[in-house]
């Protein structure tokens, strides 16, 4: 198996996480990194890549023969232009979430499919075996999922960060955090049809105007619904999920980043999995179903990407992109509902 050479565009926080993931991957490696500043690219490559190349500007990255795939790790306003340039140069693209809107995501996906290359968004949790195991177990745990509630918060108040700058991240905490809530709805609730009811509200930072907290409700034509509460303002981390079915409830308190083995957490004493509650039962009777993964989900993501890039069919590529479009469509509906 040939290892897939990745070029990373951007030298910020999540670029570093994926550079580390590439160093642990079986089928992919960091070949090069680009920055708008050559010295920053060099420092990043020295820190993460060992012998990875460092170049100034993404066009220089795309000129390299050792770059077969590009990971786009820049603010949302800059993602589409870079991804389209990479696709036009025949490179597979892993583009971090969120997107400007569904039309922007669709342009990138359509261009990738027309060029016969892979487009994937960089949502980590969907690659944890727990996500697949839970979906497969729904029929025998909660029967029919009817509603999903999620809360995702992390403590964050740096007003100079892109998250609080609407010129860089136009939807702020909605795109950054509710992306995961809405992706969980796509993965676990799998609603049929367009939203019928959408309500949402947002709190903005008084200095930057960036969205720092948001709450929303979506009702679907099939009678299912989802609510979410996300933001940076609670001074704690929360990753709570309640998936409510017709024969019980599934609960996780780490649905985005498992406590056991994800990029911010390594807790050998904690297990990845989910709780199933059923009937008139107390906590003592709740059943914990472990779904362990020796490999962190972000490493599984880059290896899955490399597999699909190497051997995926056009149908596989379409299947990989479908949840991106579904999630971004929900995000657009939520954003449009915010006063
Ligand atoms: N999937 C996940 O788990 C995950 C986690 C965190 C963030 N994200 C998403 O990833 C994106 C980046 O987040 P981050 O926290 O890594 O941000 P960050 O730390 O600010 O890094 C972004 C990098 O992009 C480059 N950049 C900045 N402005 C640019 C522009 N206008 N054009 C081109 N490049 C530019 C910069 O690198 P140079 O200065 O070297 O060019 C910068 O270091 C966000 O949309 C965020 O929502 C995803």
Tell the overall outline.
globular
Give the helix proportion (percent range): 25-40%
Count the helices. How many? 9
- The CATH topology of the largest domain is Dihydrodipicolinate Reductase, domain 2
Major β-sheet annotation: 8 strands, mixed
Strand order of the largest sheet: 8-9-10-7-11-12-15-16
The kinds of small molecule bound in this structure are: NADP nicotinamide-adenine-dinucleotide phosphate
What's the overall average pLDDT, rounded?
97
Percent in strands: 25-35%
Task: Work out the number of β strands.
Answer: 16
Specify the CATH homologous superfamily of the largest domain. Answer: Dihydrodipicolinate Reductase, domain 2
Proper CATH architecture of the largest domain:
2-Layer Sandwich
The CATH top-level class label of the largest domain: Alpha Beta
Q: Would you tell me the structural class of the helices and strands?
A: alpha/beta
Which blocks of ≥5 consecutive residues have pLDDT under 50?
A: none
What is the C-alpha radius of gyration, as a whole number of Å? Answer: 20 Å
